[in-house]
């Protein structure tokens, strides 16, 4: 039996689902005694360290946890659950009391690479540990974090991982283990690691010659645009330049849960659901979407992002819901990240107009509680051609290799809202930077001109935005063949590439994309 420490803001559903898949009974901690009575304690945490440690202090969990750990009883801390074992974190301005089981602190990445570190990276194994039974050293695990632990005692290092420099990605001392990566989101390798934690006893490790894993993989993401069709059924649909109707009907390309499962089994590194009518419907009334997420997270053990309708809302009875309430409901249902589209444009425009952060916007409130890595900004830009940069002095204009209809050799990328239905006077690069300043952790960069065209990604747009921000960028829209993924990774520094149509129409399976990339020396998770 596994006891799960749910402090309220971490995504415990995924861990619970993974453990239940392994046939385990999972009991949540409801009071301090539950910690002391646990047989095996698992502490998953995603998000913000300060929020987490504050809650542990308020609930009176610090002392019982210290007692449990002092007896060397089985413990697995994931991400923030690992951070909590140390003496404090740079992410905590108020320096709350931490567990301090291990000497050392949690520090922010100092690197030229994008921060957060999001994606699949290899681990270098430093100890022979039952935790890695049946796991080969080249296997990759899923990471999502801006901070990492720096232990004073090198003998507790279980694995290191390279991201710019090597950092400690797991520790073990006796039966106490912490991983920076998320086994519950790391596909078959992660499930195996959780199985090892559940079944091995004791978990004791010993030093070994370091076996080296590999670096960060480029992620391949399958995107499912979801909406109700005219009969009221929730379907996966797909547009051509955002027009999802064909002969008047909403295109129906399948059922969301079944398709997500198919893509997981075919090797997708992440699944994104976009509730494309979310701008006019209210997600918390749209319960099928919550149900889709719950069902998917029982069967799919890679990260899930959900977008559409993440904003403040007052329902017909006058009840007010903040964007944070909406996001919290999604996280509780199994989402790892939320993606904000239209609202991000309104928030960024207000911020740029006043020069002030209100602290109350969806981007700020959600990233404060769940961490920057949980907030993705979905940008839906369109090209606007001009003859000269002076024709659009307030926007980031580029010279383009693909001239406009009137032979114009310059363009800028105008942001849209409401699924491309309305434009706003802000360009994609400016929007991305403003959202990063407000706390966003990743950019999902669509391109309406390319969406559904199978003509390849707009690498000019991707280079413009990727060159402006220091958070990861997901290239999206236009993939028509495996070569297009190779092109986007060779010609830009995008960390991930997303596609919809070619996967839905079974034109190119995800495994075929990955096999092609591997042959072109692009690092992928196999
Ligand atoms: O504005 O916060 O409610 O979010 C709405 C979300 O729904 C946004 O992320 C927006 O991008 C998305 N959306 C709205 N309308 C549409 C539509 O298609 N009519 N879909 C839409 C956006 C774009 C991509 C697509 C890629 C790859 N879909 O997600 O999957 O372009 O397609 P391809 O590989 O087939 O070319 P809010």
Task: Explain the overall architecture.
- The structure is a single chain.
- The mean pLDDT is 94.
- α1 (12-21) packs across α8 and α10 packs across α12 (428-438).
- This protein has two domains: 2-211, Rossmann fold; 219-379 and 428-519, Aldolase class I (TIM Barrel), CATH 3.20.20.70.
- It has 526 residues and is of the alpha/beta class.
- The strands form seven sheets. It has a nine-stranded mixed beta sheet. The protein has an eight-stranded parallel beta barrel with strand order 14-18-19-22-23-28-29-30, surrounded by nine helices. Strands 24, 25, 26 and 27 form a four-stranded antiparallel beta sheet that branches.
- The chain contains 16 helices and 30 strands.
- α8 links the parallel β18 and β19 (304-307).
Structural class: alpha/beta
Which architecture of the largest domain would the CATH scheme give at its second level?
Answer: Alpha-Beta Barrel
Number of alpha- plus pi-helical segments: 16
Low-confidence stretches: none
- Reading off the top of the CATH hierarchy, the class of the largest domain is best stated as Alpha Beta
Number of domains: 2
The CA-CA distance between the termini, in Å, is 32 Å
Which fold does the CATH topology of the largest domain refer to?
Answer: TIM Barrel
Count of DSSP E strands? 30
- Return Rg in Å: 23 Å
Question: Largest sheet, described in full?
Answer: 9 strands, mixed
Ligand list: ligand 1PR
Q: Calculate the mean pLDDT score and round it.
A: 94
Q: Strand-residue fraction?
A: 25-35%
Any idea what the shape is?
globular
Q: How are strands sequenced across the largest beta sheet?
A: 2-1-3-4-12-11-10-7-13
**CATH superfamily heading of the largest domain:** Aldolase class I
- Portion of residues in helices? 25-40%
